[in-house]
């Protein structure tokens, strides 16, 4: 489903596919708006991809600010029995969760 370079117009089918993958509801009247917005975004990304970034180090923060995070140390843990009692649905030793993604 490749659309090629960003300057090619995005098809309605492609936009519907992106909306479906993004879990967005889009009606036919919104296609022109989303086509223009996505095309503009893709063109901007194409411009960024043309920049020569040789020797440019990646940033973890803007300016002199440095993000500090506490050490990643384990805290108190639930026992399996406690977890099973708290879970809305379980099949010990597993917690069951509703399906989030579907094929439709």
Outline the fold blueprint.
Layout: H1 12-21, H2 31-49, H3 80-86, E1 90-91, E2 94-95
Rg: 23 Å
Helix percent band: 25-40%
Mean pLDDT: 86
Q: Which percent band covers the strand fraction?
A: under 5%
Uncertain regions spanning at least 5 consecutive residues: 1-6
Shape annotation: flat
- Helix and strand element order: HHHEE
Structural class based on helices, strands and sheet pairing: mainly alpha
Number of helices: 3
Largest sheet: 2 strands, antiparallel
Strand order of the largest sheet: 1-2
The rounded distance between the terminal residues' Cα atoms is 17 Å
Walk me through this protein's architecture.
- It is a single chain.
- The chain has 104 residues and is mainly alpha-helical.
- It is built from three helices and two strands.
- The chain has helices at 12-21, 31-49, 80-86; strands spanning 90-91, 94-95.
- A two-stranded antiparallel sheet has the order 1-2.
- The two termini are 17 Å apart.
- The model is unreliable at 1-6 (pLDDT under 50).
